[in-house]
Amino acid sequence: MSSRLVAGPLALIAAGGMVAGPLLESGLPAPPQQWAFIVLTLPLPALGWLLAVRRPELRYGWLLLAAALALGLGTFGVGLSARGDAHALTTALGSLSAVFYGLTWIFVPLLFPDGRLPSRRWRAVAWISGGAIALHAGGNLAFGYNPYHPPSGPLSATQWAGVYASSAGQLTTWVMAVIVFCGLVVRWRRSGRAERGQYAWMVGGMAATAAGAVLLSLFHFAGPRYGVAGLVGILAVVGSLPAAIAVAVVRHRLLDVRVGLRGSRLHLVFDLRPTVDEVLSDLGTALEETPEPVEQLARLAAAVRAGLDLRWAAVTLTDGTRVVSGEQEGRAVLELPVRGGRIECGPRGTGPLTRVDRRLLEALAVPAGLAIQSAGLVTRLVNAQEAERRRIERNIHDGVQQQLVALIAGLELARATGAGPDMLAGLREQARQTLTDLRELAAGIHPSALSQGGLVEAVEERCSRLPVRTTVTSPPSLRARRFTDEVEGAMYFTVSEAVTNALKHAGAATMEVHLTLDGGRLRATVADDGKGFDPRTQARRGLATLADRLDALGGSLTVDSEPGKGTRVNAWVPVDG
To answer: Boundaries of each Histidine kinase/HSP90-like ATPase domain copy (predicted)?
Structure first.
């Protein structure tokens, strides 16, 4: 809102001076050349206002407004002079024409396209140019420059100082303009494919401005009413660069300001880039409609690419999974770390990434992190389920299946040979062992004690068969409580995996298991007196998969351990009541 309040009045003042000045100079009815001047100069304040309002964080729109204001006030001063008003205000306003020339010849091309210097090396050029413009305008003011009322009689010392200062400032301005133009050509030659069209129009506008300046200087001393050649020159000086910038905006989407259609109605719409709310809304809808994790990452990358108008965007998980939207060319120009991975951004389709683009990307960090975490969690769970399926298949093939094959072969042999009591007793024992192994295998999938007696009874039954002293404690009220199959299964297998790890890897002599229900959270703690380890340097083995399982239920799993101090596994899931 503040940018509108400032930019609007500045543009109106500039436009008013551009209209009133020529009409004051010639009177009404005005000749065609005056109307041509008005028509060709008015786009400058309009363009400056548009960029200042739509891109207030960039300085380029304000630069164009400053140039337009200098031109409008200078033209108004010339108009007042033509009406016979020769005083200090008229001279001061007329001297602002030097500011307009300096800004358009130097700073408009130098700071193109986003209001920033091409590099730190151009700072000296900017400072020298600023001093030259001030010297030129100040010299004109001291001399009392007035195209309709030149000073009469001998010049005073102040007027001579003004002549020298104005000449020195004008000459320096020309030299700096040549240097800036050469730098612009170099930037045009080195620019990428997307920016080359923008720079080409600016180079053409500068060339036309230079040609107009030559014509204007040749016919300058023919009086304020220049004739055809002088008129062409001044129109080229005041209209070439605004026209070039306008074409770059419309045709090459300069500073992401575009002209197009929105909806079913015909509108002239500027800045079609979606807002943060629009991107978040579209992203949320896309993620809800896409259950597959890889497709969710693809939708996320596409949303970032479309929202910032990037040539490509990529989403990378910590496990190395990477999805790219668009065709990647070169390295990323911006990376944003998010929870579970990072977002990589290629160059924009037009122009560099601005601070507005960075803020939009940062606004996407939270939903993007959640989407990445969800995709990674789903992927790990799917992989864990596949690994578990293969483990069960392998155990059946190598264990129970082979025992059943052997049992069938023994029965066939007993029938063929007329087996005696000893052989039948052996086959009966073999069948019992197969049944025992099959029950243990089924218990590994979902223990019968868990289905029949609940979590506490299943944990006690599991720990009773351990070869080391293991204590299971829980409040009496918890023994009678039942929870959903997902919750009970997740907590049971977490305890089972924790005690198995303690036996296999920690060399524990005693273990303690605590089950509690507190504050809507079902908690399980497994502590052992084993050798411990550094959690930062060693994998948690099967607990990583169980952590994902608990995370999917809204819970969490942590491991506290130090070498020589045992290990404590803490797990919890939210429950009703």
So the answer is: 486-577
- Give the chain's radius of gyration (CA, Å): 40
* Both structure tokens of 52: 């200042």
- Strand-pair category, 510-518 with 469-473: parallel
Q: Which tokens belong to 168?
A: 């020195």
pLDDT tens-digit profile, the chain (577 residues): 566 788 888 989 988 988 888 888 878 888 887 888 888 888 888 888 887 887 776 777 888 899 889 988 888 888 888 777 667 778 788 888 888 888 888 888 888 877 778 888 889 999 999 999 999 888 888 877 776 666 676 778 887 888 888 889 889 988 998 998 898 888 888 776 667 777 888 888 888 888 877 776 766 544 444 566 666 777 777 777 777 777 776 665 565 555 554 444 444 444 445 555 556 565 556 555 555 555 667 777 777 777 777 888 888 777 677 888 888 877 888 887 776 678 888 887 666 676 667 777 776 666 666 665 665 555 555 555 656 666 566 555 545 555 565 566 667 667 777 767 776 776 677 676 666 656 655 555 566 667 778 888 888 887 887 778 889 999 988 888 888 877 887 888 788 788 878 877 778 888 999 999 988 899 999 999 888 887 776 555 556 767 777 777 788 888 888 888 889 999 999 887 5
State the Cα–Cα distance between residues 16 and 9, nearest whole angstrom: 10
